[in-house]
């Protein structure tokens, strides 16, 4: 018999996490016991600090930086919470466009 969807342990990745609104919503759907690992990346240091204060003790690992420039993760994630920020192409460097 297959495992019910709600019982699957989640390994969550959230690019551009901000202060963690999506993570908060996720926690309402999946209790902490169903979240095996959670990682977020945020470019803005003010949001990083706020998110760390809110979520560090709740198992969310936060990295400051550009999620498009992060090395490959050390694990596989089975849930990506994404609403990537919109960036106009003329704000990107030629190198970013080539990537």
Task: Report on this structure.
The chain is 25% helix and 21% strand. The protein is α/β, with parallel strands linked by helices and 99 residues long. It is globular and about 50 Å long.
Question: How can the largest sheet be summarized?
Answer: 4 strands, parallel
Number of DSSP strand runs: 4
Strand content: 15-25%
- Terminus-to-terminus distance: 43 Å
Low-confidence stretches: none
Sum up the overall morphology in one term: globular
In summary, what is this structure?
This protein is α/β, with parallel strands linked by helices and 99 residues long. It contains 3 helices and 4 strands, in the order E-H-E-H-E-E-H.
Q: Which key features would you list for this structure?
A:
single chain, 99 residues, 3 helices
Which helices and strands appear, and what pairs or packs with what?
Layout: E1 10-15, H1 21-29, E2 35-42, H2 45-55, E3 60-64, E4 79-80, H3 94-98
Parallel strand pairs: 1-2, 1-4, 2-3
């Amino acid at each position: 018999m297959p495992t019910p969807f709600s019982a699957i342990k989640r390994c969550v990745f959230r690019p551009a996490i901000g202060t963690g609104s999506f993570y908060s919503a996720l926690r309402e759907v999946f209790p902490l016991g169903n979240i095996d690992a959670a990682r977020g990346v945020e470019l803005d240091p003010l949001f990083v600090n706020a998110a760390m204060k809110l979520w560090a003790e709740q198992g969310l690992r936060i990295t400051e930086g550009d999620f498009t420039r992060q090395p490959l993760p050390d694990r596989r994630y089975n849930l990506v919470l994404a609403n990537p920020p919109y960036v106009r192409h003329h704000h990107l460097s030629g190198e970013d466009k080539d990537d």
